[in-house]
Amino acid sequence: MIDEITSLMQEMIRNRCINPPGNEMRSVHTIERFLSSYGVETEVFESAPDRGNLLAVLKGSGERPSLMLGPGHVDVVPVENENEWSMPPFEGKIQDGCIWGRGAIDMLYIVAAQTVVFAHLYSEGFKPKGDLKLLVVSDEEIGGELGANWMVQNHPDKVKVDYLVTEAGGEPIGPKRLSYIYGEKGTAWTRMLFKGEEKHGSAPFKSNNAVVTMAKAIQRINMYQPPRDTTIIKPLLKALGVGWFTRTLMNQPLLLGFMLNQLSKKNQGDASFIHSLSQMTWSPNVCRGGAKTNTIAGTASLDVDVRVLPGQDEDYVREHFRKALGPLVQSIEINSMEPDEGGTFTAGTLSDVSSPLVELMDSVIKELRGPEFTLVPMISPGATDCRFFRSAWNTQAYGFAIHDGSMELATLYSLFHGTDERVPIGTVELTAKGYMELARRFLS
Ligand SMILES: [Zn+2]
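# zinc ion complex -> structure
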């Protein structure tokens, strides 16, 4: 399969489906041509000019739940500076055991692997006991409105599934451990507006200065401790091999703060990671205010990056901002940021941390990487297309792949949307084998 996957990937890298504008139909047709060479029938849905999605279905007998490979997005993010790359970003060159190019790791190798696995299962006459679907989509990098969400809204009967497996996951989390992703945090980006009274800056005594109010608000936001919730970190700490005693302490919301402080002295990265998975986080990141050095600031605004855990809604966010700001809240206007600035509220979503599909993933990594390997349940700090399926049908949606261990985690993470994006051929091979085994066993 590897040669077919590689050439599909190379063609999709050369297709340059940079979003915006996307033009994903180029890669949708690449997939369509490949599948039809195997005799697989596909449906292509145009969601906007030159943009669209592809679905292929291998009908099951109905004895088992349905499984989707995907949604796999074929759009990619832009390349900021081609000169910084060691390889041209849109040629799909093979060098040092890797396939290079924008989109290689996010997520064209997965789309290509899933497509080829689907075609092979079809051509060998596989008779699944549950429907096997392959969904290729556009527009994930800018919110999925013309891609995964468009399909869920416009063709719910066609894309509804019980289980799905898609991008991310399979990354090496410490020795002998690979991640899988079973949920994601949501976003509630918030803009606060502060009003003051413009006056001459030479006489500030008892003035109402919007920038000063904003500074007080930032201080309060920064000091506030939202409630802690250990639901997500419990299975994570266990899988990471944290000792029983430490785990018991960290699993207590009241002790977690103390424990994180201790941990941060030894390992700031882990502490910050566990922190963000155990509470709503606020990061006041952009402030603007005042107009002139000699004028007391009449207006100021503050943008706060708010990330919520699954189950926390907009009312929850407001309630805690009110508590944090105290008496200041009367003089502050609190709004979501505009939709085109990413302000649309997205809820966090979760699938079951353990399920029959997760058990299969565990046996598959043991077979392909070694019996000593274990899976670590993670949730993604950012939004993925999984959220549409979880919200619509409570689909058990997982991010899963199998990395070959040839790359450090930090290097790997830096490649997503980064310079010199590439994927080791070993990872591509393992991931394809893994999907093949998952689909075959889950639907037999
Ligand atoms: Zn992606």
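# post-check
The pocket of zinc ion is lined by residues 73, 106-107, 140, 167 (CB under 6 Å).
The domain at 2-184+348-442 is CATH 3.40.630.10 (Aminopeptidase).
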